Amino acid sequence: MHSETTLNTLKAKLLAQRAELLERMAFERGGVVGRPEVAAELYEHSPSDNAQLRSEREDSFAMNEHETAELADIDRALAQMAFGHYGICIDCEVTIPTPRLMVTPTAVRCIDCQSSLEFKQAYP
Ligand SMILES: [Zn+2]
Ligand 1 center to residue 115 CA distance, Å? Predict the structure, then answer.
């Protein structure tokens, strides 16, 4: 098991990563529309131009899949911490080494299981 100090450090990392991610997502979702000059443009254009701008904004929602997956990983890691089974490989149940978690706090597998999984995915 990981020490409480390690867990607290990792929890802080995850929370910081989560906050940064949410900020980035909000920025991307706001997109160009958040910029004052474009906001001003919205008022000058006809209603049909506004509809065009709105649909472009909806497109950028679809491009957030990567961020959504990342957020889900962070939330899962935080939930695992809350239940006390964070940092344990989901395949072989060994404790994932702290240095690995420091680099990738959302890791759910030890390096051995992760690389054999990636190998299987690359050569099915
Ligand atoms: Zn493993």
Answer: 9
Q: What CATH number did the domain enclosing 51 receive?
A: 1.20.120.910
How many domains are contained in the chain?
1
| SS3 call for 48 | helix
Query: What are the b/e assignments for 89-114, b being 16+ CB within 10 Å?
Result: beeeeeebeeeebeeebbbbbbeebb
Q: What is the pLDDT of residue 64?
A: 72
pLDDT given for residue 57 in this prediction: 55
Q: How far is the CA of 64 from the centre of ligand 1 (A)?
A: 30
CA distance 106 to 94: 16
**pTM confidence score:** 0.69
CA 103/CA 79 separation, integer angstroms: 19
- Give residue 61's pLDDT: 53
Q: Is 95 left (phi over 0), alpha (psi -120 to 50) or beta?
A: beta
State in Å: Cα 79 to ligand 1 middle. Answer: 20
Residue 80 lies in domain: 4-122
